[in-house]
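Worked example 2:
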Amino acid sequence: MKVRVKKALLKACTAEGRKKPGEVTVSFVNDKRIKGINLKYLKKSYPTDVIAFDSGDKKRMFADIVISAERAVANARTFKTAPHYELYLYAVHGMLHLLGYDDKYARQKLIMDKKTTAILHKLKIKPSHF
């Protein structure tokens, strides 16, 4: 899985024409941990699926993507997908945030969702029902 997540993140960068050097750390946590991060840094008191931070500069990315594995399992049940698909989805979504995309508004979310789906499709990562 580690290699496929790395490929997914690199594919997101390539798809966007970004070749900024740097490092990205991906951490898988539970809902309690991501809720704490969400509260501390974003002032939101609920668990979320993914949070991405870049503390680099314009020349170099130095980023973290934090993914709730617990949310992936819960959302897989809700959306009738496989948990591993949800994890890849969150990883790519997080990378798109690091590349400057936002999903605060419906139109922005639609753009991000289409880009995420296209990247996962290129990698042959499918929703695969339970």
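The mean pLDDT is 92. The longest strand covers residues 22-29.
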